[in-house]
């Protein structure tokens, strides 16, 4: 096994993912071990990604972190877990002599301090689960920096549970695992992003007034109080994982769509069964759900699926040939308010002319301004290293570059 | 066993009930057999009741029905089930000779036609489960008319499942039963209304725009599609029934309140787990839930409980000494809009002066007009016969009296 020469500065990008079999609840808070397996679709980085630069130098006085250009606390326990774990793997890889600065790598002591800068190409406030992309990117970048290879999803998992699924492109399962140390609670790719080229993902960013209950606290309360969550984890999810993998392998959109919707609903049902109950869906979310069911009922089959994480934003799945119609229906149901911003972002959409029949059946009581914007994307690849030096977020001085 | 002389005209009243362990789902649609036991509190007829008059006469040409003064279809299958069942029991009681008009009852042939008039002392549209009171009253009145005694909850159940619980006052369980013919799926009184004199019930009638999915159709879809409902019925409710009975017997308000809220939440969780999902709670319902949790958190214990049936109206439980404060908090959170109607109906409430501490902790973002009115009531007795002839809803001609 040849040792690579670790770089002194590395920049990588990592994707967001959206679960279609939901993760909700930890059996171990420290190691972030889940109570059930989950499965997600990795979204394309052309639309949503985190970029992270990490650098080490003998000149750095302390470990430092910048998020979206602002210095932040690097002492966060979960971030420290990831950093510690990557350094441990690097030490192990170098046969335990990494700290002595011996042999091939005199300037790259593991004792040197690290500077990390990270930013998203989408607003953090949009509620698009930025922590998964953030921790996946952090772990991937540090691994490249320290020359660590192999199973990294287990490390990312310790930053943010769902981050382990952002370590791969396409369709990814996170295996619940059995062992107490979490070594078998890892992410595996079910199929690459090229497997289902027609699949599209439309994100509806809802204008929400309030910040909902955070997922870490929410999960804890659910695990403690919801009898239905326990049943879901033990008796429902194992079978759903098998079914979902099969639907993806067979590219069976209708079956994929129906199970995706059912699993989103069941996750929100366990939130409501939590005490005190947690509500992530607001009236606009419910209007989107009703719209999708009317759309599908009109065609007599599931042509669109919705899924919601711990917030009111909707993520819709549809095949390429349905997207133009779907976007038009959404626009008519939630007419954009003229606030100067672009309403439709991401992949291009063609103007659709809808039949009166479809409009009558599907569009009801339009709610202007209820949706801030739409983002069209598709399944995409996992984390990657950026070779172009001009992309580094840290300059030669180890401090954030001013944005280009 | 002396036979009573059946009257030719009888008027009775029956109460509404509100479930604290919820019934949702039938195992037999025809006989109305539930998938789990349930438990309810019978509300006082001084505030909410149905009145029914039934008369038989050789002069009547056909069976006829009037609801709230308007003639309605007596051919409804469930109403016919009740009528047929009571006539069958009457025939059995008379040793099979009822139809021949023999012996003691020459004028009261079971072949004579019946006229039935029924009305509520509350608006049907208020979503206050009028069918339970309605069918309980129908069955009780017909039984008095035909001189039938004994177990009648099984007959009322065949009109509307929860009607069987309105056949008793106080605290009532409906046993799920095991037999295929439903003979053991009956209501039993857990404790009479005098058992817990301090208990109060505050109904918040929410201004809803839309008629939600009806409970008959909703239940059918839930039974077909919700895995969580199946688990609830099999594994959760049996234990909750035992717990709830114990809390009531011990008059343990905190435990009663917490279990009541949890069970309401779980029922709505199973509705959300239904496919397509069913949402009965709207944003106002959720605001009421949040308000109750803040109220309880302020006192460090459950002083108020909420429960919601298949609609957005909230039913709150509290002890007498909490009611004045609770009403004031609700009024400040949902300031009445001046629409000419009375905002607080039912039992009297005293003006409360709330501490600033309580107000700051509990009242947030008031929503004027979100609640149409409040109705304060308490547990009450079961169905009863009205002796006063002036209360009959049918005149000597067998037709509805004009309202007094």
How would you sum up this structure, described in words?
- Two copies of one chain form a homodimer.
- Chain A has 404 residues and is an alpha+beta fold.
- Chain A folds into two domains: 9-192 and 385-391, Ribosomal Protein S5, domain 2 (2-Layer Sandwich); 199-377, GHMP kinase, C-terminal domain (Alpha-Beta Plaits), CATH 3.30.70.
- Helix content of chain A is 32%, strand content 21%.
- Chain A is built from nine helices and 17 strands.
- A six-stranded mixed beta sheet of chain A has the order 8-7-9-6-1-17.
- In chain A, a hairpin with a 4-residue loop joins strand 3 (26-28) and strand 4.
- In chain A, helix 1 packs parallel to helix 2.
- At the A-B interface, helix 5, helix 6 and helix 7 of A face helix 5, helix 6 and helix 7 of B.
Secondary-structure class of chain A:
alpha+beta
Order of helices and strands of chain A: EEEEEEEEHEHHEEEHHHHEEHEHEE
What share of residues of chain A is helical? 25-40%
Give the largest chain-chain interface (CB within 8 Å): A-B, 27 and 27 residues
How many separate structural domains of chain A?
Answer: 2
Outline of chain A? globular
> What is the fold named in CATH at topology level of the largest domain in chain A?
Ribosomal Protein S5, domain 2
- Cα end-to-end separation of chain A: 40 Å
Mean pLDDT of chain A: 91
Strand content of chain A: 15-25%
């Amino acid at each position: 096994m040849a040792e690579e020469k670790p770089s002194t500065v590395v920049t990588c990008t990592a994707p967001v993912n959206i679960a279609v079999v939901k993760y909700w609840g930890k059996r171990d808070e420290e190691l972030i071990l889940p109570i059930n397996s989950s499965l997600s679709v990795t979204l394309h980085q052309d639309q949503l990604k985190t970029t992270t630069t990490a650098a080490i130098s003998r000149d750095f006085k302390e470990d430092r972190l910048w998020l979206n250009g602002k210095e932040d606390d690097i002492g966060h326990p979960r971030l420290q877990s990831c950093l510690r774990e990557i350094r441990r793997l690097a030490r192990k890889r170098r046969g335990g002599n990494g700290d002595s600065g011996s042999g091939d790598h005199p300037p790259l002591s593991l004792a040197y301090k690290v500077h990390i800068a990270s930013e998203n190409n989408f607003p953090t406030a949009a509620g698009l689960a930025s922590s998964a992309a953030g921790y996946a990117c952090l772990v991937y970048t540090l691994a490249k920096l320290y020359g660590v290879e192999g199973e990294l999803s287990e490390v990312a998992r310790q930053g943010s549970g769902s981050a382990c699924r952002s370590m791969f492109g396409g369709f990814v399962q996170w295996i619940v695992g059995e062992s107490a140390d979490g070594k078998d609670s890892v992410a595996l790719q079910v199929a690459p992003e090229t497997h289902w080229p027609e699949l599209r993902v439309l994100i509806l960013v809802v204008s929400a007034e309030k910040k909902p209950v955070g997922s870490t606290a929410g999960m804890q309360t659910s695990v403690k109080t919801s009898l239905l969550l326990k049943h879901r984890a033990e008796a429902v999810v194992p079978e759903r994982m098998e079914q979902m993998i099969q639907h993806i392998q067979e590219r069976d959109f209708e079956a994929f769509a129906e199970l995706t919707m059912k699993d989103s609903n069941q996750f929100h049902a366990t939130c409501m069964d939590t005490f005190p109950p947690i509500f992530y869906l607001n009236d606009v979310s419910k209007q989107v759900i009703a719209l999708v069911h009317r759309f599908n009922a009109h065609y007599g089959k599931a042509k669109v699926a919705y899924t919601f994480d711990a917030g009111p934003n909707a993520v819709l799945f549809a095949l390429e040939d349905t997207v133009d119609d779907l976007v038009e229906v959404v626009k008519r149901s939630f007419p954009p308010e003229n606030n100067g911003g672009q309403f439709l972002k991401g992949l291009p959409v063609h103007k659709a002319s809808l039949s009166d029949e479809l409009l009558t059946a599907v569009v009801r009581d339009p709610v202007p301004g209820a949706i801030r914007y739409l983002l069209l994307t598709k399944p995409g690849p996992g984390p990657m290293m950026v070779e172009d030096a001009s992309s580094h977020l840290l300059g030669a001085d180890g401090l954030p570059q001013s944005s280009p």
